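Task 17 of the worksheet. Students: predict the tertiary structure of the chain below and write it out as C-alpha cells. Keep your answer in the requested format; marks are given for formatting as well as content.
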Amino acid sequence: MSLLIVLLAAIVLIVAWIQQRRQARRQRQLLLRQLRAWLRADESLAPDLQRWIVTLSADEADVLLDLLNGYFASLNWELTWLFSPHLQKLPTLKQAAEEGVRAYMRSILASLQLVEDVSAYNTYLDLLKKPKERRQFSLIQKIYSELAAHKIVKPVAKKRGLFAQQTVRKAQIAAVLEAFESSPDIAMRLLKTLLTAEATAEIQKMADPAAAAAGQKTVSATV
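Model answer:
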C-alpha cells in the first residue's frame, strides 16, 4: 500500500512538473511575441537595428529575450513593463525602460559586428607575445607573403648556412610586426582575411574534406 502511495505521489509530481514547464514555455512564447511586436512598432529604432531584429532566427530571438530579461533584472525591473498600459502613468520610467532596451540592443548588435575585429586583435596579441610558435609563425609567413607581394615589405634574401633558416624566420617576424606598426590597416585587413579563410576552410573540411582541399584560395585579391 505504501509503495502505491509513493508511486501515485511521484506521478502527481511529474504531472505537475510537466504542467509547470508547459506554462512557463507558453509564457515565454507570449513574451517573445510581445517583444517582437513592440520592436516592429518602434519607429525610433535605427534601420540597421530593425533589419537585424527582422532577420533573427527563432533561436537567436530566444537568446535576445534572455539577454533583455537579464538586463531588466539587473535593474530590478521587469521586461513585461514594456507591454503594460499601466506604465503610461509613469512617463519617466516608461522612457527610461524603452531607451534602455534600444541602447542595450544597439550594444549587442555593435558587438556582433566586431566579432572579426575582436578575433583579429586577440590573434595579433598572440603574434606579439609568441611569434615563433607554430600557429603564430604560420600566420606570419602567410601575412609576410602577401605583404611582400604588394611591396609593403622587402623580400627577405635567401641565405645559406647552418643558421640560415633561423635568420630568415627572424627577418620575416620582424618585417611583419613592423608592418603592423607602419601599415596597420593593410596588415590587420590581411590578418582578418586569413582568419576568415581558415575558419571557412575548417567548416568545409568538416562538411566535405575533398571540397575543402580543392577550394583553398589566396587572399591577395582582398587587399
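Marker's comment: The chain has a mean pLDDT of 82. The radius of gyration is 28 Å.
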